[in-house]
UniProtKB/TrEMBL annotation, chains A, B:
Gene Ontology MF: a single term: serine-type carboxypeptidase activity
Keyword RNA-binding: no
Subcellular locations according to the entry: Lysosome
Quaternary structure (record): Homodimer.
Family: Belongs to the peptidase S28 family.
Full protein name: Lysosomal Pro-X carboxypeptidase
Parts forming coiled coils: none
Source organism: Molossus molossus
BP term (GO), one: regulation of blood vessel endothelial cell migration
Substrates-to-products reaction catalysed: Cleavage of a -Pro-|-Xaa bond to release a C-terminal amino acid
Keywords, comma-separated and alphabetical: Carboxypeptidase, Disulfide bond, Glycoprotein, Hydrolase, Lysosome, Protease, Signal, Zymogen
Keyword Cell cycle applies: no
Length: 443, 443
C-alpha cells in the first residue's frame, strides 16, 4: 500500500493486512461485506464482528476485514511507525479511506468474480465513522454502509460536550439511582482518604493496586482510571457474558451496581465497594493478583495511534459538570488539550477539520448509510439517531450498548437488536438488488 | 491557508488569493458563485469568465474567484515553491479542493449574510474538473456545480487516447478537407526540408523563427510547437475576435485554413503556407518581428505547476496515428512518460489514482452537476456529453470551442451557446430554490 496517497514525494509502500472469508461467497449474485478497520488489531475486530459471519450465507457474501494503517501489523514504517511526527504523518482518516479504496480495486483486479459485485462497508465505532465516510467520499466503491455506533457528530459543538458522560451516568442510574449517586460521592471520598501518606497506602491496599499511590498526581491518575472503567462498562454493557474490552459477566453494570446499593456509607466502606466494583471489570476471571492502573482494556486496541489521531483530526470535546453526570466537573479546554498534544506528539489538533471534510450535520445529499446506535452506548450521544432521508436511516437499539448489533447472534440478545439486525439486512439486500438491477440496465 | 490539509507535521500557512465582486449580491435570497480556480493567474480567469458577471444580477449573486495553490500569487513557499519535489509536494487536486472548502468556511464566517446562502461551484477545463469533483467530494459546501469543458474521463482507458487529436483534426477538416490534408502532409515536408544545414536555415528563415534550427532535435521541437499551435487553435476557435490564449480573429481556424486550400503544392510552398497560418495565431496584432518557439499561449497559465500536475495525478493519455488525425503517429507510452517525469520533477505519475479518487465513469450517485461541452473543443472527447441522471446533466454546444459558455455574452454568439447558458441558469436557479426550500423546512 502507498504510504502517502496525497503527495508524490514519498513513493514508499508498506504491507497492509487484510483477512478474507469466502466460504459462503457466491460468484453469481453475491456481495462483499468490507469491514473498514478501526484503531486495533484486525483479527480482534474480525472475532468481534459475528454479525458479518452470521449474515454471510444469506447475502452470499465474501467477508473482507481491512486493517487500519498504524494498527495491528499494518505499520507503514515497522517499529519506527510511532517514532516521531514525521513517521506519524500518514496516520489520518483520509489516508485510511484511500487505503480501503485501493484495496477494493486490488480485490476486484485479483478476484475476477468480485469485479461486478456490490461492496458494502461495515464498521463499528471509529470504524463505523470510516464506513459512513467511505460511502460519502467513495460512493463508487461501496453501494452502502452500515455505520454501527459511529459518533460522527461528536465534534466541535454539534452535540453538547456533556452528553457522553450523561449517558454513562444514566446507564448506572438505570441499574439503581443509588449506584450513580455512590459513584458521584466516591471522588470526594477518595480525595479525603488520600490526604496523607497513611491514606495513600490505605487506599492502595484497599484497591489492591499493583503500584502504590505516592502523591496527588497518582491520585488524579487513580480517579481518571476509575472513571474510564465506568465509561468502558457503559460501552460493553452487553446482555450476556462477553469478552470485548475485558472478560465480563452479562449486564456487567447491574453486577457492578450491586456493590453500590447504599450511598450513605463511610468513606472506607465506599472504598471497599469501589474495589468490589472494579473487581467485576478487572478480575472477572478471578486470576488477577492486583489491579493494574496502566490498563483499562484489551491490548488489541492501538493506544499510541489513537492518541495521535485524537490529537490531530479526531478531536472530540468531552466535559462533565458533576450535576447531570456522576463525575467530577471538568470543562472542555481546547487550549490545554492542544498544549498536551503538542508536548506528546509535536502536532497541534485541528478541531474543525473533520466537519470541513465530512460535512458535519449537512450530509443529506449522500445516500445508503445505516446509522445504528444503542441507547445504552455513551457514543450514541454523538451519533445519528434520527432518519435524515429515506436512504440515510437511523436504527436505535433500546437495550444496546456499543455496536451490539455487530456482535454474533446470542440466545440472550434482546428483541431490539434482533430487529435492528433484520432491518440492516433488509437495507443491504435492497442495495444489492439495486446494484444488480442497474448492472442489467447497463447491458 | 494551511499548506498541508492531509498531514499534521507541517503546520505552515500561506496567503491564498481570491477575488470578490458583490455589486449584484443580495443579502436576501441571494447566492454565491464560486469559481474553482485552475492552473493560472486568477485575475486572468476572472477576466475570461464573463458568464458569471452576466448572470450575477439574475441570480442575486456574489462572485468569488479562488486562485489555485501554486499558481498566480498563491504560492505556498513563495519563490521556492517550484524548487524541488519537497516544495511541490502539496500541489494536488485534493489539497486544492480542501482550500476551496476552507475558503468557503472562511467566507461564511466573515460575511454573515453569506452563511445561509447557497454556494455554486463554477469552473472551466481543469477548473471544471475541480468544480465537478468539489460537488462530488464536498456536497455540503456547494449545492451544485457547473463543470464547463471538464475532461473528467480523459484518464486511463476511459476514452480512446486518440479522440483528442481526432477532434482537433475534425475542426480543421470542417473548414475544408484540404486544410487537414495539407497539415498531415506538412510533417514529411518539414522533414525533407531540414535534412541538411542549408535546409535548416531555409526553414528557420521561411518561418521567421526567433531562434534558428540547429539540428534534428530542434526540428522535433518545431513540429511539436506547430502541432500544439493547431491544438490551441481548436480550443479557442471562437465565433468572434478574442484574446484568450492569444489575440485572434473570429473563427481563427477558418482564417488559418485559407492558407491551406491546395494540398498539392511543393514543400517550400507548403512551408510558406505554414508560416502564413502560424502568423494568424502568433501575430494577429502584426507586431511580432519573429515567431518564438518557446511560447504557445498566454503567460497567465502556470506551465511549471501544470507540468508537475500532469506528471503526478493528472495523467492524460494522448496518442495519434496519422490516419484518423492529421498528426505524426505517436503512441501513448506510460513508461517513457514516467521516466521523463522522474527526470524533470523527481516524482512518478500514478495514472490510476484519479479514477480511484473521483470514481471514473461510476459517478451516478452524485447530483447537481452540469457538464457542458463544445463540439469543437478537443477536450469534449474526455468530457461527459450524455446525461448520467436527472441531476447529472450534459449540455452540448454544437458551435462551441473550449468553455465558450463561460465567456461573456457576445453579439456573435451562436444560438447553441445562448441556449446552453440559459439551461445552465435554469439548473442553477433550481438548486438555489431547492436550497431555500430546505432551509424553510428546517425552521
Amino acid at each position: 500500500m502507498q504510504v502517502d496517497h496525497f503527495g508524490f514525494k514519498n513513493d514508499k509502500h508498506f504491507n497492509q493486512r487484510y483477512l478474507i472469508a469466502d466460504q459462503h461467497w457466491k460468484k453469481e449474485g453475491g456481495s462483499i461485506l468490507f469491514y473498514t478497520g478501526n484503531e486495533g488489531d484486525i483479527i480482534w475486530f474480525c472475532n468481534n464482528t459475528g454479525f458479518m459471519w452470521d449474515v454471510a450465507e444469506e447475502l452470499k457474501a465474501m467477508l473482507v476485514f481491512a486493517e487500519h494503517r498504524y494498527y495491528g501489523q499494518s505499520l507503514p514504517f515497522g517499529a519506527n511507525s510511532f517514532k516521531d511526527s514525521r513517521h506519524m504523518n500518514f496516520l489520518t482518516s483520509e489516508q485510511a479511506l484511500a487505503d480501503f479504496a485501493e484495496l477494493i480495486k486490488h480485490l476486484k483486479k485479483t478476484i475476477p468474480a468480485a469485479k461486478n459485485q456490490p461492496f458494502i462497508a461495515v464498521g463499528g465505532s471509529y470504524g463505523g465513522m470510516l464506513a459512513a465516510w467511505f460511502r460519502m467520499k467513495y460512493p463508487h466503491m461501496v453501494v452502502g454502509a452500515l455505520a454501527a455506533s459511529a459518533p460522527i457528530w461528536q465534534f466541535e459543538d454539534m452535540v453538547p460536550c456533556g452528553v457522553f458522560m450523561e449517558i454513562v451516568t444514566a446507564d448506572f442510574r438505570r441499574s439503581s439511582p443509588n449506584c450513580s449517586k455512590s459513584i458521584r460521592k466516591s471522588w470526594d471520598a477518595i480525595h479525603r482518604l488520600t490526604r496523607n501518606s497513611t491514606g495513600l497506602n490505605l487506599v492502595s491496599e484497599a484497591l489492591h493496586l499493583c503500584t502504590s499511590l505516592k502523591n496527588s498526581q497518582d491520585v488524579q491518575h487513580l480517579k481518571d482510571w476509575i472513571a474510564e472503567t465506568w465509561v468502558n462498562l457503559a460501552m460493553v454493557d452487553y446482555p450476556y457474558e462477553s469478552n470485548f474490552l475485558q472478560p465480563l459477566p452479562a449486564w456487567p453494570i447491574k453486577v457492578v451496581c450491586q456493590h453500590f446499593k447504599n450511598p450513605n456509607v463511610s468513606d472506607t466502606e465506599l472504598l471497599q465497594n469501589i474495589f468490589s466494583a472494579l473487581n467485576v471489570y478487572y478480575n472477572y476471571s478471578g486470576q488477577a493478583k492486583c489491579l493494574n492502573m496502566s490498563e483499562t482494556s484489551t491490548s488489541s486496541l492501538g493506544s499510541m495511534g489513537w492518541s495521535y489521531q485524537a490529537c490531530t483530526e479526531i478531536v472530540m470535546p468531552f466535559c462533565t459538570n458533576g450535576i447531570d453526570d456522576m463525575f467530577e466537573p471538568h470543562a472542555w479546554d481546547l487550549k490545554d488539550f492542544s498544549n498536551d498534544c503538542y508536548r506528546q506528539w509535536g502536532v497541534k489538533p485541528r478541531p474543525t477539520w473533520i466537519t470541513t471534510m465530512y460535512g458535519g450535520k449537512n450530509i443529506s445529499s449522500h445516500s445508503n448509510i445505516i446509522f445504528s446506535n444503542g441507547d445504552l452506548d455513551p457514543w450514541s450521544g454523538g451519533g445519528v439517531t434520527k432518519n435524515i432521508t429515506d436512504t440515510l436511516v437511523a436504527i436505535n437499539i433500546a437495550e444496546g450498548a456499543h455496536h451490539l448489533d455487530l456482535r454474533a447472534n446470542n440466545a440472550f440478545d434482546p428483541m431490539s437488536v434482533l430487529l435492528a439486525r433484520s432491518m440492516e439486512v433488509r437495507h443491504m439486500k435492497k442495495w444489492i438488488r439495486d446494484f444488480y438491477a442497474s448492472l442489467t440496465k447497463k447491458h
